[in-house]
Amino acid sequence: MSQEFFPGISKIAFGGPKSRNPLEFKHYNDDELVGGKTMRDHLRFSVVYWHTFSNPLGDPFGAGTAVRPWEDGTNSVANAQRRARMAFEFISKLGAPYYAFHDRDVSPEGKNLTESHKNFDEVAKVLKEEQQRTGIKLLWGTANLFTHPRYNQGASTSPNVEVFAMAASQVKKAMEVTHDLGGEGYTFWGGREGYQTMLNTNMKRELDHLARFLHMAVDYKKAIGFTGQFYIEPKPKEPTKHQYDSDAAACLNFLRTYDLMDHFKLNLETNHATLAGHEMLHELTVAVDSGALGSIDANTGDPMLGWDTDQFPTDIYLTTHCMRKILEMGGFTTGGVNFDAKVRRESFEPIDLFYSHIGGMDAFARGLKIAHAIQTDGRLADFVSARYSSWDGELGQQIESGQAGFADIEKLMIAKGDSAPIGSGRQEMLENLINEFI
Ligand code: XLS
Ligand code: NI
Ligand code: NI
To answer: DSSP string covering 132-158, please?
Structure first.
């Protein structure tokens, strides 16, 4: 490596809970075993290219503030290649095993498809070299189908067929590059797949097109021999007023309606869950219950702000509940904890990229340890199964198995007498139980 981009910062070490060094991990100790598996394998941390390496930190009211000495201010391939070297130095020093990208955050858009594809290939060459040099792997790739003006009314749900076709070509190429880089997954986030006003929208036709698009992707995946996992990432709004993949339940309904369930899992993002009016725990539960949780985009919103602020997760309750669900499903297979999070506009120095990721990784490492302790303790799970234990009796079994109908049940209850009083839900006691471990 010729140029060093983060001089003075060495590989982030585990300092332990007593460390007061902001450039050391207090809890994330990659080789440490939790329930027989290393933290590295449980958490499968991933750094996102778009927020960490390509985001100038602007907001709707002000220009970008990010100080990034390696940027030369051009949108050239050479600049993108240098940025790729910088990205891998950062991820290696941080010690995360994975990264994720959109086509357009790694390479500049050209003046037409051919040139854009060529630019992508030239940067992908460097990505491949750096992957081989560092051992860092691609968690998933994706295509940016929301920034270019042509996508202002959607990509695969555009009213214009040629826009659909452009989006298809972009996804085709992004799948090829992801496959070539050994990507373990590919994500579809419906950036503008929704509507701004129902007055001009044929919702049925748009949803049919979205489904056709995804079926084409499934076919192409087979054609090129790509075996990575496909993900759909729900989000209810922003940039559009309503996005079709609004939450986990809406995505599952869409996938089932269009016979796509076998080909997709969900990539759930905390800030998207809260925008949808759900807790992340709700979204995770919906997905796990359908065998469809694939990966998570780890971040958080701000309760005082109503948009996708994509902040780094530092709340131990949040990370605990995420890890409880992930442990409950038996851990990630293809997915991971992907930091779809950005430093604040006010945190514009390169070193802030380290502080933010170290904090997020530590918060998840603690969440993992706490979740494992809660699981091993068993009282929470025991309480929940005891709460439903009446269903294990004769009446419950007859109902659950479908043997009994309304008339049978009524007969039984008349003979038995009115139902027995139900036990307390014990919410506060359970909240205290969680606190015992935090
Ligand atoms: C935006 C999404 C996006 C996806 C990838 O809100 O979270 O970053 O994760 O396209
Ligand atoms: Ni995301
Ligand atoms: Ni988001």
So the answer is: HHH--EEEEEE---SSSGGGBTBSTT-
